[in-house]
Protein: Dihydrolipoyl dehydrogenase
Organism: Psychrobacter arcticus
Amino acid sequence: MKDSYDLVVIGGGPGGYEAAIRAGQLGMSVACIEKRVYKGEPALGGTCLNVGCIPSKALLDSSHRYEATKHDLAEHGISTGDVAIDIEQMIARKEGIVKQLTGGIAALLKGNGVDWLQGWGTLVDGKGNDKKVKFTALADDSETTITAKNVILAAGSVPIDIPVAKTDGDRIVDSTGALDFTAVPKRLGVIGAGVIGLELGSVWRRLGAEVVVYEALPSFLAAADKDIAKEAGKMLKKQGLDIRVDTKVTNAEVKGDQVIVTSEAKGESSEESFDKLIVCVGRRAYSEKLLGEDSGIQLTERGLIDVNDQCKTNLDGVYAIGDLVRGPMLAHKAMEEGMMAVERIHGDKAQVNYDTIINVIYTHPEIAWVGLTEQEAEAAGYEVKTGSFNLAANGRALAQSEAQGSIKVVADAKTDRLLGMHAISAGAGDIVHQGMIAMEFVSSIEDLQLMTFAHPTISEAVHEAALSADGRAIHAIQRKKRK
């Protein structure tokens, strides 16, 4: 550890460690401060890698393979006999993936000359040319003041606690606890039908749990396009998820080996018992020990760090990224903001295009979108045209037994410009990247129509959806006027 650095990054999650690596590549002296301890060891990677994106995807993949083996192989002529799931091995595989990736990040920091300081980072004073950061070591709580020409705040977020369902780390857990169940609960309750709730609910439902998902909002997946949300709701319910919208949980308490959940819907109250309850109603910015009283950082009314479009705070040389600032709490957003902040510090004019940030829900099939929904486009004053294509008519999807879902495009009817792409399909998270790239290059629907998509691929559905916007889909009967 040095006394001073060109850049100090507080937070070693996706945004923080990528920023540190890029700064090292650019020749800066860099320190990345991270206080996380996972399974008894200091760990980089933040929530995403340790207890979020990566471990949840590992469990989603394991549970999907189990369900597919148990229920879906017979139609292919494959006989399996009795199928069992070893939860201990499933969790061990997940832990192995996390360990491999966290170790990889540590190696990347070292390889790029970044000092990983294991402990807490507090911006004591962000004013002036030399910012002061207090470093509190994990090992012995010793405190050291470091000076830095620039600081990036990247402390991430933590699950929101709600008073009506206080977590106890056993029967009532947050998203982190739901990744470490040692057995499949017979009945599982989930508070929150957002990304985390649907993914974790799907994992344990596939493995045999009876799952009830409570959602206080009156509509399902309110942020998604209405057509996609409606289709997703039907599919997930068919899979066995009991999703109850407009239903508010008013109390949850542990009695013996059960969690008694009281909920209210349409003015009526009811009680149900569960073996486990997952609380996943969202996340909040993590600010513990992050800012000293005289740091000089300006906050928003919501308690987030106030930044401009380039993630610069009100103080020169101090940036904040990821879950600490406005915008969706997504790892890839934080990553690009971290890179942008470093490039700006270096004197370049990098910019994140917030209009093309992709959202993905890793259920099966996946639900993903980029850009405007049909409803958002109309509210913004566009004259909208849309096109969609059902995967039931896609040869590759049928061959893979993945003929569920659809692709939808949203465009400006006057200019033909693509405004958004929405998908519910196998690999939807990858499919909508085609829409993101097209939007980055200001493509029109005609551009997509004129491209040659390989056959047979699921991506052909993107081509058909684009053709559908003008009534030209080949593998669907349309009543629109053909051009």
About this structure: The chain has three domains: 4-158+284-352, 172-281, 356-468. The chain has twelve helices and 23 strands. The CA atoms of residues 107 and 375 lie 46 Å apart. The first strand starts at residue 4 and ends at 10.
